[in-house]
Amino acid sequence: MLNRDFTNQAPTMLNKVLIGIQNKSPRRSVYSLVLWTGLTFIFVSASTYFISQSRPAVDYFTHHESTYDSSANTNGPNPLLTTEGIDQFIHDHAYPRLGESANFTGLRQVCDSTKWQKNVYFTCTHNLGGLINVRNMVLNCVRYAIAAGASGLILPLIEARDPTVLSRLKTGEYQSMQFLFDEDWFKKVMKTNCRQMELLDTIEDVPHYRYATMPDLMNVQSFMGQPPGSRQGRMRNRKPEDFRPRFDALIKSQSKRPGERNPVIVRLDDRTLFSWPPSFDSPAFANYFGFILEFRLDLTALANIIVSRVRPTSSSGASKDPYVGVHLRSEADAGKYWASWDQLANATLSAAVESDIKHIYVASGDTDGVAKLAKKAAESGIKVLDKWGVLLKNEKEYLKPFRFDQLAIVDYLTLLESDRFVGSGQSSFSSHILMRREFIANNTLSTDTKNDNGKPRDQFAGPGRLAYWDQDWP
Ligand SMILES: *[C@@H]1O[C@H](CO)[C@@H](O)[C@H](O)[C@H]1NC(C)=O
Ligand SMILES: *[C@@H]1O[C@H](CO)[C@@H](O)[C@H](O)[C@H]1NC(C)=O
Ligand SMILES: *[C@@H]1O[C@H](CO)[C@@H](O)[C@H](O)[C@H]1NC(C)=O
């Protein structure tokens, strides 16, 4: 566990702060009043939004007995709890991943045509919330670092939510990116395709970091002179093309140019969710940028195990047992206007009946809702499964200690592979699965041949949907 308080202490500690980014307006008092009123409003609405968005209750904590348990697996030490055992398990089950067929030419082109600035570093520390929101925030931070031409990037961190009070996102518990993502993959892809940007493990690895100039935590929207967000536009940066000129002006306004002995370290705040519109970049870049992040290998392997058991392939490879995946986002904290249990259950059962599918894989924190779904499905001879019901004893023992958002990885990947998918249009987790499935179908990017029959017929149950497509990277 990394506990890095430097992110808050650094400015006072180093006592070298740039001219406040937010204090540049000549009509400062009027401006501040408006700004503060606006910020307060936005903060209240945004935090409500974040809390609701960022609780993809993709897991429920009932550990019922696996229907796949075999006696061979119940005795003796658990190999998954040894380094060699888990390495072997990863080797056997985690590959291939989609990222391995991603085309990073677009990323390389952007990096090759960027004007890089020596001795300028970015940190991406305040990434918090649900799995998919964290992913978006990390990607956006890296995108801003590239836009700024920062020649150094400190490996992103993740602020882990409170395990007992899931709505408490701001905890000050900073974890390495390995908490959710495959760090080696990220390093490899960036080194290969964006070699101009050096990756540093920690802020202490910046040469002469004690003498660094550290502007206040940067809030992109106020830096851009844009309103912090609206109901539709959320935190969207309306003019990404202005970021670089503004950034250059900021650097120029310093008394000293960034140098080896006085580097500049820029730290983005926790308001980068949905900030960068992917459509600003060429499809060659935007389509594959998200693949610089892959989820951690051990949980990927477990998800693949689940898929292989829910959908066994006969030895001839001819027939497969398909399943409907549902993100049953009907927990108590879901908004009033979100898809209801009725709508989600109805859409899921209809999809199964329509396609003559006999298995449903469910991800949900709504224990009662899952039980109700299982009961209703049974009436049509359909079986409802979740990860705890599919994994074997040793696997469950390995998975159990993982945190809420880590467990979400297993559900995300299992739902991604489903033959039909039903989710809630108001959930960023559901929305991303739908977008990625569409992306995979469009690009015939696949780990197997499941798209033979064309695009998956996915659906959102319930009213409306997030204006998601140009808010997040596929
Ligand atoms: C990768 O993307 C680039 C840029 O869009 C394209 O020119 C190239 O053909 C692609 N490579 C493959 C193998 O698809
Ligand atoms: C879903 O709802 C419609 C309309 O209310 C109903 O006719 C249908 O039978 C429901 N389907 C299932 C599978 O419950
Ligand atoms: C998939 O292709 C369709 C048709 O070209 C397009 O409208 C849609 O945006 C694509 N989806 C993704 C996620 O790339």
Automatic annotation (TrEMBL):
InterPro entries noted in UniProt: GDP-Fuc_O-FucTrfase (IPR019378)
Name of the protein this chain belongs to: Peptide-O-fucosyltransferase
UniProt keyword terms in alphabetical order: Carbohydrate metabolism, Fucose metabolism, Membrane, Transferase, Transmembrane, Transmembrane helix
Family matches, as Pfam families: O-FucT (PF10250)
Domain of life: Eukaryota
Ranges that cross the membrane: 30-51
Organism annotation: Orbilia blumenaviensis
GO biological process, alphabetically ordered: fucose metabolic process
Entry annotated with the keyword Membrane: yes
Record GO terms (molecular function): transferase activity
